[in-house]
Specification:
This protein is an alpha/beta fold. It has 11 helices and 15 strands. The strands form 3 sheets. Strands 3, 4, 5, 6, 7, 14 and 15 form a 7-stranded mixed β-sheet that branches. It is globular, with a radius of gyration of 20 Å.
């Protein structure tokens, strides 16, 4: 038997229960992983707070992100052996190419059981080797926030040295995006409501920062900082509440990568602004296992260390979600097993 945290009702964080489950067994093409750490994302908190609208079937093991050690392999698995350190891919059925309905139906901690359990079965084709420079705690932060940031910067129209990228906020995606931009030679402008967090982003390489509570018209400030041209790309995590400002802040022919809806699901968008500036507006939903492999290699080559704010014991997992809800952190929140 093993222990697993489960969402058992609509009660939010209070509806998490630490229960016993039978040890899972890997089938053909699968591996059994002893989980060493699981990082949480805003998406995991939203799943806890509003499981009904997401069609969650109880009980569901939450969380998409984990790193651990292979303890057994199923049939037809030749690329992995017992003892390998691995990271699970967010989508268990998205190897390469464009996203598909099949891939979306394999999202850990949502469409299927997640990884906040002592042992999990994962597809052998949907795990990535832990970069040598990372601990399991650090590696567990990569599957959702890390890969989303990587996807937003490197796909379709990859950023290049000398480009300017606008990062909204200082959440997990934006912090990873800053680290990747610094390694890629890309300049950044970062917004936040916290001067303390903006100072931290400067230590990670941000060239310019804007406190949007002090400068509500931050899109105008972005234009001023770019001599009226606008940025080449926006990593847009706010959603409808900030998207119109992002459209104003990006250059003609630039790109806005839409990732989150931290400001809510409603807002006013002027489509003609997208057309007149020939802006590429693209939705980003994490990424494929092939993209993950490329990101892991980049992290290893550039010795990037994920930023971890706090580490919680497995038994104290609800406190990690509470801290996520309080939004006082900068960097990832990790549950250590």
């Amino acid at each position: 038997m093993m222990r697993a945290w489960e969402i058992i009702s609509e009660g939010g964080i209070a509806a998490l229960a630490l229960n016993q489950r039978a040890d899972p067994e890997p089938g053909p093409g699968q591996v059994l992983v002893k989980v060493g750490a699981s990082a949480i994302n805003y998406r995991d908190l939203v799943t806890l707070k509003d499981p009904k609208s997401r069609g969650i079937v109880y009980p569901l093991v939450p969380n998409s992100d984990c790193a651990g050690t292979v303890v057994s392999v199923g049939g037809d698995v030749s690329n992995l052996t017992v003892g390998d350190r691995v990271i699970g891919c967010f989508f268990q059925d998205w190897t390469d190419g464009p996203i598909s309905p099949v891939a979306m139906a394999s999202a850990l901690g949502g469409a299927i059981d997640g990884v906040l359990a002592e042992k999990v079965v994962l597809n052998a084709a949907a795990v990535v080797a832990v970069p040598d420079n990372l601990t399991l705690d650090e590696a567990s932060t990569l599957p959702c926030a890390g890969l989303t940031a990587w996807h937003a910067l490197t796909e379709a129209q990859p950023v290049k040295p000398g480009d300017r990228v606008l990062l909204l906020g200082t959440g997990g995606v934006s912090v990873f995006a800053q680290q990747f931009c610094s390694a890629l030679g890309v300049e950044t402008i970062v917004t936040s409501s916290s001067d303390e967090k903006l100072a931290k982003m400067r230590t990670l390489g941000a060239q310019e920062t804007i406190n949007y509570t002090k400068v509500p018209a931050w899109e105008e400030k972005v234009l001023a900082l770019t001599n009226g041209v606008g940025v080449d790309r926006v990593v847009e995590v706010g959603g409808p509440g900030t998207l119109q400002k992002s459209l104003a802040a990006v250059r003609v022919g630039g790109a806005v990568q839409l990732i989150g809806i931290l400001t809510g699901a409603s807002g006013t968008i002027v489509p003609t602004d997208i057309m007149r500036k020939s802006i590429s507006l693209r939705g980003i939903y994490v990424g494929s296992c092939t993209q993950f492999e490329a990101m892991a290699a980049f992290i290893s080559d550039h010795k990037i260390q994920p930023v971890i704010d706090s580490i919680f014991a497995f038994e104290d997992a609800p406190s990690a979600y509470q801290k996520m809800q309080n939004a006082t952190h900068l960097g990832k929140l990790v549950i250590h097993f």
